[in-house]
Amino acid sequence: MLKQTITELIKKAIIEARQAGKLPELTLPEIAIERPQNPEHGDYASSISLKLARAVGTSPLAIADEIAGFIKPSAEIESVTVAPPGFINFTLKNEWLTQQVDSILKDADTYGNIELGQGKKIQIEFVSVNPTGPLHVGHGRGAILGSTLANALNSAGYSVEKEYYINDAGNQVDSFRRSLYARYLQAIGKEAEMPADGYLGNYIIDMVREIIAAEGEKLGKLSGEELTTALGKIGLEKMLGQIKADLEMMDVTFDVWFSEQSLYDNRQYETAIESLKKRGYIAEREGATWFVSTALGEDKDNVVVRTDGTPTYFATDIAYHYNKFLERKFDSVIDIWGADHMGHVSRMKAVVGALGIDPEQLTVIISQMVTLRRGGEVVKISKRSGDIVTLRELVEEVGADACRFFFLSRTADSQMDFDLELAKKQSADNPVYYVQYAHARIASILRLAQEKGADSTDGDVSLLTTEPELILIRKMLLLPEIIETIAQTLEPHHLTYYAQDLATVFHSFYMQCRVVSDDKAMTAARLKLVRAAKLVLGRTLGLMGMTAPERM
């Protein structure tokens, strides 16, 4: 990557400045390479002189002058300048920039990929909704965050595994089974009360009707406990099937569907708790079993086994993360949780440390709430069922691409408004339409070229010297840096901003530069540029899990 090239140029210059007696011997801090906000200041800038000023004992501007004087010429850099209060600015050569069009076309679908991860194993666990009801809009945000982050990390050279944790054990699943049992009896004309903690949504009634239609009356011959178990098994399978189908509507898939029940069946729960006990982090008191969180700086200890002998959700989470780190040996784990789990983060990090794992290997991303709006009006319930708006309803109304882009458009830790009317607009006001239209416009240019027999095979990219052309190339070259930023910050929203910027630059180029013309040499060169732009924009849309339309 170009940033690394510039970093090495600066390092070598500092070493030579030391050897020449222009700078003292000192520990070199990290060299950060940034992009100046003002394009007139060049393509890249470093503030290393500001970091060195105190240790050197002279002004940052003087240090910058010394370093800049030792920076060697390179194939990429046109000029190196110094600007107050001590920035070293780098401007790229136009000749080098134009050559990158051929490089992009050569890399094709791998363009933008970097080797930051070097194959390290990362697990991303997301959605993981209890299979006791349909996915709602908030779940969709976590789904898109997780799947897009996985795409970016794969492109950054990590080995990524996407996982859905199925909560198929515990109180909520028991409540789900008992809810189905009550609704089943009611459906066949028998009296039954819904449990106090039951699921009251219409989807339970609909599911029971489906089960009766498929199974006939044979289930009615089972005893109470047998019927509850049978209905629960069928119901969980149906709910998981619906969840999978709803997620696939948005191109969200998983490598692993991990069963909570398996932690008990395979005795991993017992192994994990025993491991903590040996390390002195488990205590028995007040008839319950506790994780001694206070020994790790937490405000209070946490119950892992209740007085009635049943494990808490925290207990199964302990076993689950024991499995992730110590059995499956992931180098890093990323959990994407809803806002209601924020209070769980600190103790989860503590327990990971208690298991002998570096807590920094676990990252928890909190996905904040989503508010649906139709114009200025807040949408709270479904028109179809009167209950919450399901994810399926949202996708059916605005489309998967709009869902993905809008969910990605804000950082995960900020609450967001989802404007249904804007998401459906077919105009430049809608960022989804705006970005995809740029791709369709490029496709139309290439079709026109084909109709006219224009060919880019022998296009001479050195002819691309105008400002709109060079600005477009510069913008295309940012994709590897965007992927690097996402891999380092775990913030995939950067893709939405990059996509809009790239589309804007392309639309501007299109308005100022005629691609297919009577000038065959210029046509061939610009067709190469347009093909490269289509590839980069298509890759960006692909990373976001969106389609790249050829026509609109």
Features:
3 domains, Gyrase A, domain 2, Rossmann fold, 15 strands, Isoleucyl-tRNA Synthetase, Domain 1, 50% helix
Short description:
The chain folds into 3 domains: 2-92, Gyrase A, domain 2, CATH 3.30.1360; 122-424, Rossmann fold, CATH 3.40.50; 428-543, Isoleucyl-tRNA Synthetase, Domain 1 (Orthogonal Bundle), CATH 1.10.730.
Overview of the structural elements:
- The chain is an alpha/beta fold and 552 residues long.
- The strands form four sheets. It has a five-stranded parallel β-sheet with strand order 7-6-5-11-12, sandwiched between helices. Strands 1-2-4-3 form a four-stranded antiparallel β-sheet.
- It folds into three domains: 2-92, Gyrase A, domain 2 (2-Layer Sandwich), CATH 3.30.1360; 122-424, HUPs (Rossmann fold), CATH 3.40.50; 428-543, Isoleucyl-tRNA Synthetase, Domain 1, CATH 1.10.730.10.
- It has helices at 2-19, 48-56, 60-69, 94-107, 137-155, 171-187, 202-215, 224-248, 261-265, 268-278, 313-327, 345-354, 391-398, 400-408, 420-424, 431-451, 467-476, 479-489, 494-512, 520-543, and strands at 33-34, 44-46, 77-83, 87-92, 121-125, 159-166, 256-259, 282-285, 288-291, 302-305, 332-338, 362-367, 370-374, 377-379, 416-419.
- It is built from 20 helices and 15 strands.
- The longest helix is centred in the middle third of the chain and has 25 residues, at 224-248.
- The radius of gyration is 29 Å and the shape is flat.
